[in-house]
Amino acid sequence: MLKIKDLHVEIEEDNKSKVILRELNLNVEKGNVHALMGPNGSGKSTLANVLMGNPKYKITKGEILFEGKSILKLKANERARLGIFLSFQYPQEIEGVTIRNFLRTSYNSLNEEKLSVMDFRNLIIKKSKLLSLDENFSDRYLNKGFSGGEKKKSEMLQLAILNPKLAILDETDSGLDIDALKAVADSVNALKKENPEMTILIITHYKRILEFIKPDKLSIMLKGKIALEGDKKLIDHIEEKGYSWIDEE
Ligand code: ADP
Ligand code: MG
Predict the structure, then answer these.
(1) Which residues contact 3 (CB under 8 A, 6 or more apart)?
(2) Which domain, by its residues, includes 10?
(3) Is residue 150 part of a domain?
(4) Residue 159 and residue 167 in contact, taking contact as beta carbons nearer than 8 Å
(5) Which residue minimizes the CA distance to atom 22 of ligand 1?
(6) Would 202 be classed as within a structural domain?
(7) 45 CB under 6 A from ligand 1?
(8) pTM of the entire predicted model
(9) Is residue 114 part of a domain?
(10) Residue pLDDT, tens place only, 102-160
(11) How many Cβ atoms are within 10 Å of 10's Cβ, its own excluded?
(12) Is 164 in the pocket of ligand 1 (CB under 6 A)?
């Protein structure tokens, strides 16, 4: 589904270029829940941004294949149309735009088949039910005055409506108390159950959310590259020992 080969990424800072990702290789298989863990500053969000096509980051070497095709030259909206979705660590607040209108506009710009107001209302009702959300939730302004947990619910509703092939969830668990965290995990699990083909790349600093969303595979990122890969057993090891024991080379 997703193949990253020898990726090198730089960013321009104070007229100097700074290497953030180097020699990064990663394979994500279709239908998998793939966890990406690593300490703060290791480059996880950079990778998520690069996958989505954020033009701030410069790719100096390497390749990114999505379903066998290079996406390097595609803009963010073109990648979204291919079925790539990124959930942000810090979602924006937009006054005056309801979740419902925002989602309908997004849906219609990404899909050939446009939905009428009525059909879209039905889709919202169905997906809200799936996520145990009040149907009126989507009448609120986008993330305006939302708690951390509500912002994540709004992201999950967006994920449910857009139903991408690849969902990248960047620190969806950050700043959530245990109840909100469980609610997010329940949402992801419900979506995955409804659409088992959906591939999920879940980026996190802590193993907590991975107790509720079971990953098929785990990759550890250190200083801009994948330093180690494993399965669920590796998670406990990380929790106990931290990241420092992993030999980079
Ligand atoms: P993580 O998500 O794993 O915490 P990031 O990808 O946010 O890591 O950051 C990795 C490194 O790249 C950090 O040293 C960070 O300061 C740097 N970095 C990321 N984005 C930018 C940017 N826009 N400008 C300057 N430096 C950046
Ligand atoms: Mg980050």
Answers:
(1) 26, 27, 28, 63, 64, 65
(2) 2-92+166-248
(3) no
(4) yes
(5) 11
(6) yes
(7) yes
(8) 0.93
(9) no
(10) 999 999 999 999 999 999 999 999 999 999 999 899 999 998 888 888 888 899 999 99
(11) 17
(12) no
